[in-house]
Amino acid sequence: MKPVLLSLVLSGALFLSGQASAQVSLKDLQAQGLAPLNSPQLAKFLTGNTLYHINPANSVKVPLYYVADGTRYVRIKGQVLRTSWRIERDMVCEESVVLKREVCRSLFKSEGVGAVCDEGSEICAYGLDWAEGNFENLGR
Predict the structure, then answer these.
(1) Would you call 110 exposed, middle or buried from its count of C-beta atoms within 10 A (0-12, 13-18, 19+)?
(2) 140 inside domain
(3) Phi, psi at residue 33, to the nearest 5°?
(4) Number of H helices, E strands in the chain
(5) pLDDT tier at 59 (50, 70, 90 boundaries)?
(6) What is the Cα–Cα distance from 12 to 89, expressed in whole angstroms?
């Protein structure tokens, strides 16, 4: 099965199939009439699927697989790590393997649009791609 890829082109920011060139502001997303996914949408979008955070600084795609029981698998620097996740206040809250603490993030997803915005930040620091199912075979 091929992954379904999303891209973002707003106000000079581009997140396209792992080719991220800049970050995008939360205000730019909102100015385009985009709203973050709500809790039921997040549950449907994440559970049993693979998300890719795209670092705009280097275009690195980090795959994350979300299991219904609250387990999340992340492959970073060739290593698969097991963490946890939950949905709270229309955000996905998860253990960051980089920051070594829990973070809550809003996800923006629409036709051709994907962005990940940390709670309290005015800048959406990551692009977003998505694949149906456990496309990367994480946690097996």
Answers:
(1) middle
(2) no
(3) 80, 15
(4) 2, 12
(5) confident
(6) 30
The CA distance from 44 to 117, in Å, is 19
Task: Please identify which residue in the block is written with the tokens 């980090």.
Answer: 62
Taking the CA atoms of 59, 135, 93 and 8 in sequence, report the sign of the dihedral they define.
positive
* Structural domain for 93, as ranges: 7-131
Q: Quick check: is 2 in a domain? A: no
Radius of gyration of the chain (CA): 14
Q: Is 137 within a domain?
A: no
Domain assignment of residue 138, yes or no: no
| pTM, full prediction | 0.82
Report the alpha-carbon distance of residue 88 to residue 36 in Å, rounded. Answer: 13
C-alpha to C-alpha distance for 17 and 70, rounded to whole angstroms: 27
